[in-house]
Amino acid sequence: MQHQHSFVDRIEETLIAILIGLMTVVTFANVIARFGFNSNILWALELTVFMFGWLVLLGASYAVKKHSHLGVDAIINMVSPATARIMGIIAVGCCLLFSVFMVKGAYDYWAVFADLPPTSGRWFPTGFADKFRSQSFYEVQDVPMVGFLRFLEDLINYGDEYEKLPKVVPYLVLPVSMILLLYRFIQAAMQIVRGETDRLVASHEVEDEIEEVRAQQGEHD
Amino acid sequence: ACDEGEIVIKFSHVTNTDKHPKGIAASLLEQRVNDEMNGKACMEVFPNSTLYNDNKVLEAMLQGDVQLAAPSLSKFEKFTKQFRIFDLPFMFKDVNAVDAFQASDAGQGLLDSMQRRGLQGLAYWHNGMKQMSANVPLESPSDANGLKFRVQSSDVLVAQMEAIGGSPQKMAFSEVYGALQQGVVDGQENTWSNIYGKKFFEVQDGVTETNHGIIDYLVVTNVDWLESLDADVRDQFLTILGEVTTTRNAESTAVNNAAKQSIIDAGGTIRSLNAEQRQEWVDTMRPVWDKFSKDVGQENIDAAQAINASM
Amino acid sequence: MEVILLFSMVIGLLLIGVPIAVSLGLSSILFLLFFSDATLASVAGTLFEAFEGHFTLLAIPFFILASSFMTTGGVARRIIRFSIACVGHLPGGLAIAGVFACMMFAALSGSSPATVVAIGSIVIAGMRQVGYTKEFAAGVICNAGTLGILIPPSIVMVVYAAAVEVSVGRMFLAGVIPGLLAGFMLMVTIYGMAKVKNLPKGDWKGWGEIAESGMEAGWGLFLIVIILGGIYGGIFTPTEAAAVAAVYAFLIASFIYKDMGPLADRGNGKGKLLRKPQALVTAFFHEDTKHTLFEAGKLTVTLLFVIANALILKHVLTEQQVPQHIAGAMLSAGFGPIMFLIVVNVILLIGGQFMEPSGLLVIVAPLVFPIAIQLGIDPIHLGIIMVVNMEIGMITPPVGLNLFVTSGVAGMPMMSVVRAALPFLAVLFVFLIMVTYIPWLSTFLPNTFMGPEIITH
Ligand code: NA
Ligand code: NA
């Protein structure tokens, strides 16, 4: 049932499990607080939403590695292996283009919140903007500031205190996840070019489960 | 659609276009800009949060992706905490006092207070005074003790609900009606027009006319964008905006009174407070001021109180 | 015109094997860079906004997690036993029991493929053993599995609610009558076929078996009470109900069913909690728990990455005011509600051939929603119509999620599954027409329990 697992696989899988587990626990705790103690954890919803975003964005690169992004493989299955390989190369080229755009967009979006200059250029980065308006003051709605991040006040907020978490923290996932995505697409591209696989996609969301079912039935027949 | 060469003014807001005071004002502005500035500028209105919600729109504005927005005043506390004055309970006697404060030096000063962070306030648009509703009769503040109230994310509003012994709760706006009906939360605060428009009165025991706070909007734009306009275009645009503001703000009391009457006509219960009861609410909520007076600035509080006294 | 280019690009990329999410995202980006002055940064902002701005989508990971725990906890086996005890003795009994089991599992799970895998992997093999053809078995389960998104909870309904800002609770309630009706229609059809073809029937095992199997399945089925009772009993919001359901499912799977976690059977019988009290703590960190969390997380990632990129496309369409233009064109062409609904059905049936259902809904719902409102169609009714269209899309070639999954579970080629599903597909088509033109089916329960829908858009 378990496939070959590398150390990095384990880290990524544990992170995914922890994020969805924490989301559940925080939401559940808020229900208990309200229903049991007529109280509330006001920041629970926002924190859960952030973890949700981190889960999906960070998980997206893992899904590239495991070829589990959803897609249509009907045509790939119909054409000859040579055609499939060409289609695969074009497809992965599109994915690379997408992730390069997203790395630039994600960095530019995040940078102003980190008091850093966004890149210049419309399609591709051509350098750094020499004039920009810092948004490092911008805080989230509800999640309070935490002590170990106080160093950010001097580092990017010109000594001003944060009451709530600055947006630079949750948004950090954008550049990080998009760089990881680009990295995984480069790996996938090399696999396709080397002819190790002809596709990037899974045709539906339960491929693993079906594999398991087939394996079990195979044992019984 | 906009013609070639026209300056595109995208206006993103979160209400309908024909029933909500903000939506009506936005539609009027759109119409006048497109009629009178045809060839020079063109306004596209995106209602109902279709483009951005109130939390995101200011980020988008700073990015230059939208030119005009009118979030509620509490959203600006991220830019300067002085805006918390508008959330403080019983800070203003009535809409006229709000209006006078906004027109005063203190109020006009707030419009420019966010320039260094890239926003320029252009005009205040009224919705109206807030009322309280719950699934039990609310007459004395002690009636609210132990009740769960849906609030918008704002430290002041959270503190206000805690002052009356309520438990503030946060949830998606589309779930509020169902949550009130089923009792996931017990009550909420809003203006007459919102209480009627979202039919909250149907699922509450009644609405108490507390007039304890206000919901108003600030029309804002990006400083850099405004500066990039030719002087004549900018002046004409600001003139139109000013006229629309005056027209619609004058109507806001009528809109809210009509909404209030519609609630009565639809069989909703409205409770008024006598002077003694009202004072009880004031006394219970007033301590909230102390917690935020440093953020708001004592001079602003004094200005607001002077206006209350003069009216 | 440019919009046609945009959609052609999406479809073209899909067909050469680009992941759905990337097809949507890349097409949107290229469109923006060519035809507007929007920046790449704004696209990234929209990607994060998909989560930050749509609280309601949070219910999806929790429902997936609840369903994963239940599946790991072997609830499907117990539901099937209960179904057979109830209806197995009728003509065509095991097939009818399969539909009944799909309906019950649908009430625990928000997804159709998951329903097919859970029920199909047991029932199809069981049906073959008692003498049904493989084709018949696959056809039944392939169709009944689509109820996964119609009977609440439903991921697709959560997505619709988030896309057009209606209440999730209302949508769930609206799915109950249509879900029961569709299941009933399938069962009646099987009963009729069984009479004609003289299909096998099982033995009546008595009320004792119903009671016993019911008790066992009851622990799992109680999840329905938590979800619907919790929402309509005023304890939870729909998102919270989903999280509570996930926690409940974990507890049942670990401590009642003991099919996973420290008390599970590992060759020496199931553990007794009294003998292993530390299980109360270790269950939370057990390898099985971690594995289920991870599987649910992975599924969340793939579905939500599609939805988030679909929201980028939606943002592009909104910014270009495409919904307004389409609405204007349709209204000025004099479309009435009937014609409009036919058009919606056709768009969704075609779109369903290429797209994962929730991604498709994110894009189509905002396009047709404003028109529907102007034509006086109830938003909840429109939502149910869309869900039923998605169901049909799942069992029609060339691309149909349930077809793939059934062919995998049953070990049959795709084309045989397609043929097998055909007779029952006719039933669902009749059902679609009923749901489309009898709004009462969808609106009765929500309007009764939650008052008429408030239309402010
Ligand atoms: Na379901
Ligand atoms: Na299909």
TrEMBL record, chain A:
Its main location: membrane. Residues 23-114 form the Tripartite ATP-independent periplasmic transporters DctQ component domain. It is found in: Cell inner membrane. It comes from the Bacteria. One of its GO terms (molecular function) is transmembrane transporter activity. It is a multi-pass membrane protein. Pfam families: DctQ (PF04290). InterPro entries: DctQ (IPR055348), TRAP_DctQ (IPR007387). The chain crosses the membrane at residues 15-35, 41-64, 84-103. GO terms for biological process: C4-dicarboxylate transport. Keywords: Cell inner membrane, Cell membrane, Membrane, Transmembrane, Transmembrane helix, Transport. GO terms for cellular component: plasma membrane. Belongs to the TRAP transporter small permease family. The complex comprises the extracytoplasmic solute receptor protein and the two transmembrane proteins. Part of the tripartite ATP-independent periplasmic (TRAP) transport system. This is TRAP transporter small permease protein. It comes from Shimia gijangensis.
UniProtKB/TrEMBL annotation, chain C:
It is found in: Cell inner membrane. Pfam families: DctM. Keywords: Cell inner membrane, Cell membrane, Membrane, Transmembrane, Transmembrane helix, Transport. The chain crosses the membrane at residues 12-35, 55-75, 82-108, 114-131, 138-160, 172-194, 215-235, 241-257, 299-317, 329-351, 358-377, 383-405, 417-440. The keyword Membrane applies. One of its GO terms (molecular function) is transmembrane transporter activity. The keyword Transport applies. InterPro entries: DctM, TRAP_DctM. Residues 8-441 form the TRAP C4-dicarboxylate transport system permease DctM subunit domain. GO terms for biological process: C4-dicarboxylate transport. It is a multi-pass membrane protein. The complex comprises the extracytoplasmic solute receptor protein and the two transmembrane proteins. Belongs to the TRAP transporter large permease family. Part of the tripartite ATP-independent periplasmic (TRAP) transport system. This is TRAP transporter large permease protein.
